Amino acid sequence: MKSMRAAIWCAVSLLGLLSAQKPPAHSPYGEAPVLPAVVPPRPKAGPAPIMRTSEVKAGMKGIAWTVFQGTEPEPIPVEIIGPWKNAWGPGQDVILAKLGGKAAKTNVAGGMSGSPVYIDGKLVGAIALRISVFSLDAICGITPIEQMLEITAIDKTQPSDQRTPQQTAQRAELQVPPSLLEQSVRLTPIETPLAFAGFHEATLREFRPYFDQMGVTAVQGGAAGALKSSRPAAGWQKALQPGEAIAGVLVGGDLSITGLGTVTYNDGKRVLGFGHSFFNLGPVDMPMSGGEVLMVLSSQFQPNKFANATEIAGALHQDRHSGIMGELGAVSPTIPVNLKIRMQSMPGAAFTERQLHFDVFVHQKWTPFLMMLTAFNSLQDLNGAAADEATYRMTGAVEFEGLEPIKLSTLVATGDAPMPAPMQIASWWGDKFNRLFANQRDVPKVKRVDVTLEMFAERRMAAIESAWLDHSDVAPGGELTGKVILRPWRGERVTKDFRVKVPANTTRGEHRLMLSDSDTLNRPQMMASSMNRSMDLRQTVALLNQERINDRLYLSLVESRPTVYADEQMLANVPPSVLNVMQSGRTGRPLAAMNESAQFVESIAMDRIISGSTSLRFAVK
User: 250 with 288: CB under 8 angstroms?
Assistant: First the structure.
């Protein structure tokens, strides 16, 4: 099956190259249109007369404007084939047209979305669709301008078919896109190339299944240098003229992710573009920038503009089926991320450091994914010669408006796990933001994020092998002393002394001292919190701060009395009568209970990942 898919893919790719090299001598739609002898001046911002779809007739000739190189739009001759009634649904017409000039060579390229089309000086609409692959002509679909003008800032409805990252995307083999195998010719929205600047090719390869699920074309691009701030740059009042490049900015700074299209209309304050959705998110608050086109790749298969995003000019407020709408000069809230990267080339060597700063678009479903993506990419900088024998440490602090900060830390070592260590740690980081932004009661207002990523050139792991007490009897308020043996990765056993103070109120009789890793203590409370979908943001933050760190050895006193977990709270040593009342449902809160209570009393920093647990019995006399 794999070989057959590969053969099909190679065959259609070869056909695409051949068709791109040898365009047909005769077009089924006649010769490509040419520009008139006198080309009208390029459109400027301001109110424009429009031509409605009912006025558009087959054979009409017009001009579209788009950027092929640099920032200046160029004219493209357009010949109308005819209106296609209800193409996108009831009342959703599309105007079919054929492009000439440079577009006849490049074909309808990704990034041309939104290019305005004029007939007799009137704005008709935006180039927004093209025939699915291997078109012999530069045939496009035009979204009528009256549909785009219906996009308003006050529309708060949420589309049901938003394109957002799915955390459960399977990393399966790349499937041949169905459109390559379909016999019928159809119009599809022009791909909005998502350009990644400062990202490794390995990152795009690893996350390709996510993008494929969303129908997003991810390409390596430029722009990181121009997007140092999420605030509009000087001169924004004259930015984003009709026909110029426009970009939505998901990440800006030393790393950047931008989606490029073309401006359709600018009335001096409001800007319309694309002619189709970006991600169909509905109401958004995303930084909006201009763009500089480097070149347009000519292809019958997948033509695309290569471009750099330029400075911020405002904010996108709507992402709808018929286009995007932004406001010049507006400021979008973003999350500033300061990221320090420290790498060790060999055990015992000094660390090399570098700093990154970038701003992340705020959205319930996109922000966690972007945090995971940027973390994974930064970890690629740490994959040196010792990457096969390495340990990654991630520490971070998240500051909020009106809430206590979160401090997080974890270690992940390379090994035989199905998921590579960099993806494990990036997923762990993204999950923290997913839990924050999935909160059903409050929207987190994140002020800033500080992260440090470190790579140690060795596997720092140790398993709890055995332990013993120096004395098994102790008085209330006394101390227990003993030793624990840890088995590290490829090394001699390590023996650690420990000392634990027994609380003065401990009852007389048999007890247990548990020596464990962080997972043993975290697991019950995590299970309990997952039962409650209505926790507020304060509770979620408190729960995240209670998580134990996996580079410490934890010592807990265990008693045979129930523990109840409710939201972010742990209630130890609950009397049976109280437990019966709580489990009867009278409290109205989801609860989880365990038969024993583990009271944490001490921890020992180990600077390596600790796994396993063991228990020691002692008597209080």
Answer: no
The DSSP code for 173 is: P
CA-to-CA separations, 69 to 50, 111, 126, 137, in angstroms, rounded? 28, 12, 19, 22
Extract the tokens encoding 336.
């500033």
Q: What local confidence, expressed as pLDDT, does residue 26 receive?
A: 45
How many whole angstroms separate alpha carbon 571 and alpha carbon 562? 9
Backbone angles phi, psi at 439, to 5 degrees: -60, 130
What does the DSSP 8-state code read for residue 203? H
Q: Which of 461, 454, 462 is nearest to 425 (CA)?
A: 454
pLDDT digits (tens, 9 = 90+) for 300-351: 667 888 888 889 999 999 999 999 999 999 999 999 999 999 988 888 888 8
Classify the phi-psi angles of 148: left when phi > 0, otherwise alpha if psi is within -120 to 50, otherwise beta.
alpha
- The pLDDT value recorded for residue 563 is 62
Q: Residue 167 has what pLDDT?
A: 44
Q: Which residue has the tokens 């990267």?
A: 341
Can you say how many angstroms the Cα of residue 257 is from the centroid of all Cα atoms in its chain? 10
- What is the SS3 assignment for 521? helix
- pTM of the predicted structure, to 2 decimals: 0.85
Least Cα distance to 555 among 487, 470, 477, 467 occurs for 467
Q: Give yes or no for a contact between 478 and 505, defined as CB atoms under 8 angstroms apart.
A: no
- How high is the pLDDT of residue 505? 86
Task: Flag residues of the chain having pLDDT under 70.
Answer: 1-30, 132-135, 166-186, 222-226, 299-301, 383-387, 528-533, 560-597
Residues listed for the chain:
621
Strands (E), 414-543: 446-456, 461-469, 473-474, 479-488, 494-501, 509-516
Q: Measured between alpha carbons, how far is 66 from 456 in angstroms, rounded to an integer?
A: 50
Cβ atoms within 10 Å, residue 161: 7
What is the token pair recorded at 224?
């990181």
Question: Topology of domain 335-456, per CATH?
Answer: Ubiquitin-like (UB roll) (3.10.20)
pLDDT of residue 17: 42
**Residue 531 token pair:** 């039962």
pLDDT given for residue 90 in this prediction: 77
Tokens in use for 161?
A: 């078919």
In the chain, domain spans: 45-153+184-200+234-327, 335-456, 461-620
**CA 508 from chain center: how many Å?**
55
Please state, as a whole number, how many other Cβ atoms lie within 10 Å of the Cβ of residue 539: 18
Q: What is the DSSP pairing of strand 194-197 with strand 218-220? A: parallel
Which helix (H) or strand (E) segment holds residue 258: the answer is strand 256-266
